Amino acid sequence: MTSNRGGQRYLPFAFTEHGVLQLANVLRSTRARKMSIRIIEVFIRMREMLATHKDLLLKFEQFETKLVDHDDKIMLILEYIKQFEKAKQQELEQKNRPKIGFKKPKK
User: Fold this and answer.
1) Could you point out which of 60, 70, 78, 93 has its C-alpha 20 to 30 Å from the C-alpha of 44?
2) What is the pLDDT of residues 17-37, one digit of tens each?
3) Based on the domain organization, do 2 and 47 belong to the same domain?
């Protein structure tokens, strides 16, 4: 990555295909040119593979989005079930609590 002021802050980790082409123009040996051409061919093949499988990548992203949405809905359903269980438990406790007030004496 380069800085805004010009110059390079650190060395690049990899060449782009354009960088390899520039390198091939600078280097004069036959072997360097052959290797540069081979690297450019690999770049082209990688780009073709990515373009071919782009539809699969989009499908995976859509699937992931659906899963996240489904996870949220499942968590909401579980929360509702917990609230329902809590309400049932409170109702049961209310029903089983001891009655207060006047009690008729047993005869």
Assistant:
1) 60
2) 777 777 767 777 888 778 878
3) yes
